[in-house]
Amino acid sequence: MAVLRAQAIMKIIVVIGAGGNQGGSVARTFLNLPHWKVRAITRNPSSPAAKALEVLGAEVVQANLSDPDTLSQAFHGAHAIFLNTDFWATYRSFVATTTPKEKGPLDGEEFDPGKVAYQAEVSYGRNAAEAAATVPTLECLVYSALPAMTKSTGGKYKSHHADSKGAIADYIETELPDLAKKTSFIYLGAYNTNALLSPVLDPSDGKYKYFLPLSKAARMPIINQKESTGLFVKALIEDEAPGTKLLAYDTNSYLTYEQIRDIWSRASGKEADFVTVTVQFMHEKFKTPMELIQSVPALEEYGYTGSMKVIEPGDLKTAVRTKSWEEWMMERDWKAILEA
Question: For the NmrA-like domain, which residue ranges apply (predicted)?
Answer without folding.
Answer: 11-328
